[in-house]
Specification:
The chain is α+β, with helices and mostly antiparallel strands. The chain has two domains: 70 residues, Ribosomal protein L6 (Outer Surface Protein A, domain 3, Alpha-Beta Complex), CATH 3.90.930.12; 82 residues, Alpha-Beta Complex (Outer Surface Protein A, domain 3). It contains two helices and 13 strands, in the order ββββββαββββββαβ. A four-stranded antiparallel β-sheet has the order 11-12-7-13, covered by helices on one side. The longest helix has 20 residues. The protein is elongated.
């Protein structure tokens, strides 16, 4: 039995969870989200807890058991306290700003990079070299942060580019030239 999958999820005060077939809807003080669970896992509400049970014993069913439970747990915690990713921009003249529904970055290209902000996410720039992405859906927040970072990942020689605020980049030694004389 899955150790993660068999743990029930407590529903805190102020959060509503509804299950209709395979669709799980969670609503809380910070927002709402919904997700369609895999048919191999049965999700039901038992009092003030959400319980996930698998319908079979195949390898896929066992793998999905913990995944479905973790995803629903992230939904419940996301509507209470939104998930957040912080990105840092390093480089001379590199900066970012939010303009309307777009994130606009000047990151060493000949043109500004414009990325539309997905529905349900809040993107702010506390300073010109920091980007804060927040939202109730952990997957959306992480995917958008990864897409922003992918535009200009940090290169290891001069450490220019976009990185997560808690990411450690190991700086590489550059090539040295020694004359033969």
């Amino acid at each position: 039995m899955s150790r993660i999958g068999k743990k029930p999820i407590d529903i805190p005060a102020g959060v509503k969870v509804a299950v209709a077939g395979e669709v799980v809807k969670v609503e809380g003080p910070k927002g709402r989200t919904e997700w369609k669970a895999h048919p191999a896992i049965r999700v039901k509400i038992d009092g003030a807890k959400v319980v996930c049970e698998r319908t079979g014993e195949t390898r896929l069913d066992r793998a999905l058991h913990g995944l479905v439970r973790s995803t629903i747990n992230n939904m419940v915690s996301g509507v209470q306290k939104p998930f957040e990713k912080l990105l840092e921009i390093n480089g001379v003249g590199y900066n970012a700003k939010v303009q309307g529904k777009d994130l606009i970055m000047m990151i060493g290209f000949s043109h500004p990079v414009k990325m539309p902000i997905p529905e349900g996410l809040t993107v702010t720039c506390p300073s010109v070299t920091k980007i804060a992405i927040a939202g109730v859906d952990k997957h959306k927040v992480g995917q958008y942060a990864a897409n922003v970072r992918f535009v200009r990942p940090v290169e290891p020689y001069q450490l220019k580019g976009i990185k997560y605020s808690d990411e450690m980049i190991k700086k590489k030694q550059g090539k040295t030239f020694v004359s033969g004389a």
